[in-house]
Amino acid sequence: MSDLVQRLFRRDPTLWPEGNVAASRLGWLDVAERMQAEATDLVAWAGSIDAGRIVLLGMGGSSLGPEVLRAAIGSDRLVVLDTTDPATVLGTPLGDSFFLVSSKSGTTLEVQALLAHCWERMPDGSRYAAITDPGTPLARLASERQFARVFENPPDIGGRYSVLSYFGLVPAALLGYDVSALCQAAIDVDREAAGELGTALGEAARAGRDKVTVVAPEPFATFGLWVEQLIAESTGKRGTGLVPVPTTEVETGDDRHLVGLEMDDPLELGREFFRWEIATALAGSDLGIDPFDEPNVTESKENTARVLASLPLPALPDDDPSTVSDWLDRQFRPHDYVSIQAYLPYGQDAALESLRRTLRDGLAGAPVTVGYGPRFLHSTGQLHKGGPSSVVAVQLVPRRPTADLPVPGHGYDFGTLITAQSIGDHQSLRDHDRRVLRVALDDLGEIR
Question: What fold does the segment set 297-446 form as a domain?
């Protein structure tokens, strides 16, 4: 086994720059073994939950892994609710549901708002469980409200590295996965090959091929959501970073580093989760950055808080959707990438992917990514602000609130919240001198 891989599994903090936070973030290295020992209990507990639907309230690392696991088996039992869009929240059925409230810090604004919404309609603690770190406000609230169970996750695991901990495996058990087999797939990973992948990623970036095009088989397309947040939030800082471009078809270019995935069984996700965690940690070593901190994530949160503290909302100028292609033609330079940031209702994945490909083809195959806001603020948002200045952002917002839905106990509604989040992120992008176009629309078909 290579020296780098050995040092990683010895938890050697000198792999990364001085001042790194690795000492408190490496619990993911052996969590699969720890969780495998609890697999029987998890599966038994999950079998005791008598509900037709599981509604997961989470953001970022708390939600993307479960969504991958759900999509891989085509289950509609789990609903991952990780947005503040009022139409999506209002349209999520809550009857005959069990609620899984997931937040490492226990203070995530979106999760607090979503929990307030659900609790007002279903104020029965026996229908809730929480996943959080020990001693958080969420853990205390869950105790006060007598939640069915509180899963206290090891605190030395960061959100984006938490998929093989309670944050990913409790939902997996509720979905009917063989949790022990999922853990075993991770335990059996070829660590040397994972280390080689990480070194290749770092070397490619330093050679100018910093767009990591991850090609997943169609049945596992949503794996791109998880690997995108892992790579982007871990490496996008100090003006450098890897730009993940998840896709189901090969995309090439002189700034691309292509990685193809081979999977035909959902249990193989255990292997891929751990392989990419190892690779990303070691890519950070190669790039000379700390892959476990997130220095720019809080900026948009703080801007959102300032906007909400001084309502009514400020008015930002919105451009017409017919100007998008012309604006990109003027702004885009070689080795840039486009980030489509859609503060829109869920359920438009196919249309957004079609838009991504249209803009990509219009820019001669340039790297184009797409994500829903505010989901991406907890993941790729770190890259957009802390990574290379090569991002060209297109922020898509609705012309008017998509629904009227108050946030109980917060003094504002969900429409105001998501608008404040888009305004806060717009300000953060501008503060970092990023190129950003804000477009208001009623339908994605208006974009030209």
Answer: Rossmann fold (3.40.50)
